[in-house]
Amino acid sequence: MEQYFILENGVKLPKIGYGTYKSTDGNGGRIIRMALEAGYRLLDTAAIYENETEVGTAIRESGVPREEIFLTSKVWKDRLGYEATKKSFEESLERLQTDYLDLFLIHWPKPDPDSTDWRELDRGSWAAMEEFYQQGKVRAIGLSNFLPHHIEALLETAKIRPMVNQLELHVGYMQELAVQYCKSQHIQVQAWSPLGRRRVLEEPLVAKMAEKYGLTPAQFLLIFLLDQEIGVIPKASSMERLKQNLELPDVHIAEEDLYLLRCLPQIGWGGEHPDLPRVQEQKGLGV
Ligand SMILES: NC(=O)c1ccc[n+]([C@@H]2O[C@H](COP(=O)([O-])OP(=O)(O)OC[C@H]3O[C@@H](n4cnc5c(N)ncnc54)[C@H](OP(=O)(O)O)[C@@H]3O)[C@@H](O)[C@H]2O)c1
Question: What residue owns the CA closest to ligand 1's atom 27?
Answer without folding.
Answer: 236
